[in-house]
Specification:
single chain, alpha/beta, 5-stranded parallel beta sheet, 5 helices, 7 strands
């Protein structure tokens, strides 16, 4: 079973994400703050993580530095911002712009083993 973390301060999105994408092949763990996600990453293997760029307790790049992830973990940033610094974007395997479509997000969740890093245009 694949383990996926979604971190966002919008509880409605967390609930929707969990309802739509939890199934017998993947377990969705949702957190609305950085500290809970950090604690979870220390004690569990994570296959994919989706991080909202701007939250009350910091930005996605700040959180990424604190998470304990394997080199195989797919890391995606979700953002509603028009512009994000390119140096920050390069820390992530891909960028998902809000609002996102369920179909594009689903294609990412079903392809955890992709090799090439997608561009923003792929999402």
């Amino acid at each position: 079973m694949k383990s996926i973390i979604y971190i966002d301060d919008e509880n409605d999105l967390l609930e929707l994400f969990s309802d739509l994408f939890s199934n017998d092949q993947r377990k969705i763990h949702c957190f609305n703050n950085h500290q809970d996600a950090i604690s979870f990453s220390r004690n569990n293997t994570v296959d994919m993580i989706l991080i909202d760029y701007r939250m009350p307790d910091g930005t996605a790049d700040q959180l990424l530095k604190k998470l304990e992830l394997s080199d195989n973990t797919v890391v995606l940033m979700i953002t509603g911002e028009m512009e994000v610094d390119q140096d920050i974007c390069e820390l992530f395997h891909g960028i998902i712009k809000k609002p996102f479509t369920v179909g594009k997000l689903e294609s990412y969740l079903t392809s955890l083993s992709f090799l090439a890093r997608p561009t923003q245009d792929d999402l």
